[in-house]
């Protein structure tokens, strides 16, 4: 979100300094990796409309930056009929197109997946190339005039009525407005300066699986509405990413994590793949962790407080909104 905000602001002619505490392409936060789902399919019309607003902004960013950050593959929702119907109702209320398929027809269309209930297909879904997008927005901000610094963490912030002083290990900065898009570290940076909502940091796990040699599935991204919310999508050159949503261990400090995946979770997801994704070899070839920073209602926190704009707590579903949230934060800066 910080890179996208810097890109929007630099394009508007503002003097921008972008600070990242870790190296470029690091894997310590919430936004790394080869893929993130893009989908319109939410059970709340407000989120559908936000996705509809984000989609043309992705296309604008790709046109300006000349980088393929979003690939449209279509998206599937299936599982609990009431949950999927709620998604259909929200899509219909937002004027978004979709189609229903019987389980048998869906199985013919996606033979590597198993379906037991009616399937909702939404054609505008796909995948965000997360690593590619992060690099593109940071480089785009730099090319538009921003000063971009990696491995320069903030050690102290002092907020005045009309300015913010920022001290790092290497330099000091004074700015009329500071944007803090620090993810799991937002509480340590501004928790005493801004009244944040209750935040829960969890270490979630993702796994990649390889298609079987005879699999002929054109893999769309999907959401499976079960007792545990599961999702999957193809990551080019890595396999099919499969994960549970909001089942990770709670952390008190994002700097104190082992980066270890849980054997119990991997066994559970392997079993899920064997049962529901017969086109895949049911043994994960890679496993990784990432952080969620979540509010109780999974809403985002994008607010201005004096000379501070705080952008965080994307609650495990924020990446698809990156150019939209970046523009929202830039608008708050320009107020």
Task: Report what the structure shows.
- This protein has 335 residues and is α+β, with helices and mostly antiparallel strands.
- The chain contains eight helices and 20 strands.
- The strands form five sheets. Strands 4, 5, 6, 13, 14, 15, 16, 17 and 18 form a nine-stranded mixed beta sheet that branches. A three-stranded antiparallel beta sheet has the order 2-7-3, with helices on one face. Strands 9-10-11 form a three-stranded antiparallel beta sheet, with no helix packed on it.
- β10 and β11 form a beta hairpin.
- α1 runs parallel beside α5 and α1 packs across α8.
At a glance:
By secondary structure, the protein is of the alpha+beta class. The protein has helices spanning 2-11, 45-65, 81-93, 103-109, 130-143, 186-190, 263-276, 322-334, and strands at residues 17-19, 36-38, 70-72, 75-79, 99-101, 119-122, 126-128, 147-149, 154-159, 164-168, 172-175, 178-180, 200-209, 221-225, 230-235, 239-244, 249-251, 286-294, 301-305, 308-312. Strands 4, 5, 6, 13, 14, 15, 16, 17 and 18 form a 9-stranded mixed β-sheet that branches. A 3-stranded antiparallel β-sheet has the order 2-7-3, covered by helices on one side.
């Amino acid at each position: 979100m910080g890179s996208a905000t810097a890109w929007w602001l630099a394009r508007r002619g503002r003097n921008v300094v972008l600070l990242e505490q870790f190296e470029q392409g690091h894997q310590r936060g919430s936004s790394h990796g080869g893929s993130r789902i893009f989908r319109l399919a939410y059970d709340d019309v407000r989120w559908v409309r936000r996705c509809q607003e984000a989609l043309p902004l992705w296309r604008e960013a790709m046109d300006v930056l000349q980088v393929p950050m979003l690939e449209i593959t279509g998206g599937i929702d299936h599982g609990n009929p009431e949950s999927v119907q709620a998604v259909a109702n929200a899509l219909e209320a937002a004027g978004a197109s979709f189609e229903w398929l019987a389980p048998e027809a869906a199985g013919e269309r996606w033979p590597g997946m198993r379906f037991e209930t009616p399937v909702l297909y939404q054609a505008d879904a796909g995948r965000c190339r997360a690593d590619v997008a992060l690099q593109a927005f940071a480089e785009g901000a730099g090319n538009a005039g921003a000063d971009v610094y990696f491995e320069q963490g903030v050690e102290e912030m002092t907020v005045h009525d009309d300015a913010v002083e920022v001290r790092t290990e290497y330099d000091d900065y004074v700015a009329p407005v500071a944007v803090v898009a620090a993810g799991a570290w937002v509480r340590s940076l501004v928790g005493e300066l801004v009244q944040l909502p209750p935040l829960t940091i969890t270490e979630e796990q993702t796994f990649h699986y390889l298609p079987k040699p005879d699999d002929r599935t054109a893999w769309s991204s999907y959401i499976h509405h079960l007792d545990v919310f599961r999702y999957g999508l193809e990551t080019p050159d890595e396999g099919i990413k499969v994960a549970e949503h909001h089942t990770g261990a709670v952390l008190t400090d994002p700097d104190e994590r082992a980066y270890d995946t849980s054997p119990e979770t991997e066994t559970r997801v392997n079993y899920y793949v064997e049962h529901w994704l017969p086109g895949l070899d049911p043994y994960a070839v890679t496993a990784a962790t990432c952080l969620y920073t979540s509010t109780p209602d999974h809403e985002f926190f994008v607010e201005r407080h004096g000379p501070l704009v705080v952008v965080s707590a994307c609650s495990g579903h924020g990446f698809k909104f990156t150019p939209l949230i970046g523009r929202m934060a830039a608008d708050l800066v320009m107020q």
